[in-house]
Amino acid sequence: PLLRWDVIAEVTTRIRNEGEEFAAPISLYTNGLPPPGAPPPAELAATLAAAGVSHATVALNAADPEFYMKRMLSPPPYAPAYHPDAAAAIGDVEGASFGLACETVAAFAEAGIETTVTSVAAPGAADAAGIRELGLALGAMQFKERTFLE
């Protein structure tokens, strides 16, 4: 969803402006990587919080830069079902990094967005305890490990 963060902010603002009957929590799920040209994570998070985004779930899937690069920024070792090839499954990762994802987690938390960090329990997956510890240190309120579906 951060690819269209500006649309999320606009739509969330419109929903919030409709009245109290639309006061349900608004949550987004993301890999925490703003697209090229987006504002820095602190500004982006502040904009989303001001618009009314109340919760964010960030798929971190690694506790260190090397494993993050392998897991999140490299083509998967399988043929993805919804993409023409493995490289298309990860999209444009120019400027993406472990540090940027971590910065986004911290920015969401600092902006008052209730943040959850997740990882996938997959074969060869990263250390879930390390991801949990990192996520909580960055300001996330929760950690969830999701099941890998083969």
List the helices and strands and how they pair.
Layout: H1 5-17, E1 27-30, H2 41-51, E2 55-59, H3 65-72, H4 86-90, H5 98-110, E3 114-121, H6 128-138, E4 142-147
Parallel strand pairs: 1-2, 2-3, 3-4
Helix pairs in contact: 1-2, 2-5
Task: Describe the protein.
This protein is α/β, with parallel strands linked by helices and 150 residues long. It has helices spanning 5-17, 41-51, 65-72, 86-90, 98-110, 128-138, and strands at 27-30, 55-59, 114-121, 142-147. The protein has six helices and four strands, in the order αβαβαααβαβ. It has a four-stranded parallel sheet. Helix 1 (5-17) runs parallel beside helix 2 (41-51) and helix 2 (41-51) runs parallel beside helix 5. The chain is globular. The two termini are 24 Å apart. The mean pLDDT is 89.
Structure at a glance:
The protein is of the alpha/beta class. The chain contains six helices and four strands; from the N terminus they run H-E-H-E-H-H-H-E-H-E.
Task: Provide tags for this entry.
6 helices, alpha/beta, 150 residues, globular, four-stranded parallel beta sheet
Query: How many strands?
Result: 4
In the sheet with the most strands, the strands line up as 1-2-3-4
Main beta sheet: 4 strands, parallel
Fraction of helical residues: 40-55%
Name the poorly predicted regions.
Answer: none
Please compute the radius of gyration using only Cα atoms: 16 Å
| Binned strand content | 15-25%
What's the mean pLDDT score? 89
- What assembly state would you assign to the polypeptide chains in this entry? single chain
The shape, in one word, is globular
Distance between the termini: 24 Å
Structural class: alpha/beta
Written as H for each helix and E for each strand, in order along the chain, the element string is HEHEHHHEHE
- Number of contiguous helices: 6
